């Protein structure tokens, strides 16, 4: 792929013994039960912001790895715009370096996105971070803008799922990764639905798939 080594990195593990590690272990254990609705629920007595932070890190890692498997098929020529089918196109702006939304290729958009997510630790002005390896510090309050930043990150990560499903699902099938992609996306959707983290209009590109996944768990 053409992604820069700066933004495509193997995931860093949450240190053993930390509270975030225990939360991640709890999430993995409940995921293993097969009940994704239960797996996304806030564990009793836990802080909502911390739960959202830990899971956002995990989704960032998952999507980074899933996209990493199809980068050779997602190129400037194959995907000259960042889209999710013919009806949905995404333009990039981060409000800092690029204030006016720009039209760019899918690999460029996703490169911007992954770099932006990693840079959030500097903009939250706190020991807290959504970035792997830079964890929440007990006793330090989350920044006031934490929830809005988390929602923006998750909204933009959804767009990577949408692009993969609409533009590269045939490649995913050839690589025999559809089960992995579907499970990851289902976990993601149940999580954002549980805490109302993404506006329904943003989910429109994959609405039929979301309804199909949800109907199986009713």
UniProtKB/TrEMBL annotation:
Species annotation: Manacus vitellinus (golden-collared manakin)
Tell me the domain of life: Eukaryota
Cite the InterPro entries for this sequence.
MOB_kinase_act_fam, MOB_kinase_act_sf
| Keyword Ubl conjugation listed | no
Q: Name one Pfam family in it.
A: Mob1_phocein
Q: What is this protein called?
A: MOB kinase activator 1A
Q: Which Gene3D superfamilies match?
A: MOB kinase activator
Keywords attached to this Swiss-Prot or TrEMBL record, sorted alphabetically, are: Kinase, Metal-binding, Transferase, Zinc
Q: Which residues does Zn(2+) bind? A: 74, 79, 163, 168
Give a GO molecular function annotation for the protein. kinase activity
């Amino acid at each position: 792929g053409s992604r820069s080594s700066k933004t495509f990195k193997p995931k860093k593990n949450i240190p053993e013994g930390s509270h975030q590690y225990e939360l991640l272990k709890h999430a993995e254990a409940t995921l293993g039960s097969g009940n994704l609705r239960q797996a996304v629920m806030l564990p009793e007595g836990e802080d909502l912001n911390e739960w959202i932070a830990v899971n956002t890190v995990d989704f960032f890692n998952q999507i980074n790895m899933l996209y990493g498997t199809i980068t050779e098929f997602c190129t400037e020529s194959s995907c000259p715009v960042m889209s999710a089918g013919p009806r949905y196109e995404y333009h990039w702006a981060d409000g800092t370096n690029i204030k006016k939304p720009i039209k760019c290729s899918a690999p460029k958009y996703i490169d911007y996105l992954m770099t932006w997510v990693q840079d959030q630790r500097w903009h939250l002005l706190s020991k807290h971070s959504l970035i792997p390896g830079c964890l929440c510090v007990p006793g330090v309050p989350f920044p006031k803008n934490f929830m809005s930043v988390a929602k923006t990150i998750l909204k933009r990560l959804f767009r990577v799922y949408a692009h993969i499903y609409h533009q590269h699902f045939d490649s995913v099938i050839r690589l025999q990764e559809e089960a992995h992609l579907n499970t990851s996306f289902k976990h993601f959707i149940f999580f954002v639905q549980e805490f109302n983290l993404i506006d329904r209009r943003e989910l429109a590109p994959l609405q039929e798939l979301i309804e199909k996944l949800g109907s199986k768990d009713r």
